[in-house]
Model the fold of this input.
Amino acid sequence: MVTVALDIEPAHAHQWIDAAMLTHPSLIDTTHVTDELFGFVNIPMAVWIDEQGSIVRPAESASIESSPLRDMEIPAGLPERLDRMFREIKKIPDCAADYRAAIEDWVANGADSRFSLDPDEVIARSQPRGLDESRAAACFELGEHLRRTAPTEVERGAAAVMWWREAHRLHPANWTYKRQAWTLVTTPAGASENDLMQGPNDVYVGNWLDDVIAGGGGGAYTVTPQL
Amino acid sequence: MILETLEEVDATLFAARTGWAATAQGMCRGEVCVPAPGALRADGSLDVRVAADRLGMPIVHDEAHRLWAVGPATATGRAISTVVAADPELLARDGGPFRLSSLHGRKVLLVAWSSY
Done:
């Protein structure tokens, strides 16, 4: 197993990698280039690559344990927005047990596993990509690049926001572009962990809850594996 | 791919970043080749406009900073054009570079996650 954190600030991923004391290659993709090259649009997602370096399953939702939030009773009296978030999270399809079993089958049986797909199927099942999605990738990359390299701090922030807004508009189904940008503006300064609520803010048009609902709700939030 | 010019782009760098190599058969990645007459110049440099047009790669321009960004290919309408896995340089925990090709000969379950 190889994990790759789509985090433009490596330090944000380091604390989790170190806490987990991982023994597998634990990589960081600071530019979200793996979105572009493998078709990731959310996390967690995974691709399967065989011994010859060929993809045998395209990017799809890759939970291997059911989220405890799924079966948790929503406490009464939560703030309205948090209550609605929980309700959408509970709608996210749970394929964890089946996906885990599929991985184990592939590990045991390799190309003979029924979950190992032929090349045409891998390509056909990979994420759709038209000009808007491709342009969004270019915009995200420009924003990330300028956030590091523009001459002044003000310019760095402004350029990133300008290009990331455009990336969000062009490819609303790409959640790594959106969640990455939102968390940078909704996480309080000095916080030890990134904000996961990613609520309404003054910088970007969208936010997690309203965008999930606009995209069809929690049931449409992930790329469900076709097993 | 971020570029400071669209003229005389190093074809090797273009291939390393996008996976698409300029060859006599056209722009190729894995077993897929897209004819692209004029993309590869006699001096070995790449005419990015021609290559991008043939591969369906939009080019976005930031005029203020004189930069261009080339989006990924849309020639097949899917995120993956070939099953040959891309091999980007990623960052290991120790800060060093890491390529998936270093695991050739082993199955790789590549799992994307994030801190957000």
Observations:
- The first helix of chain A runs from residue 10 to 20.
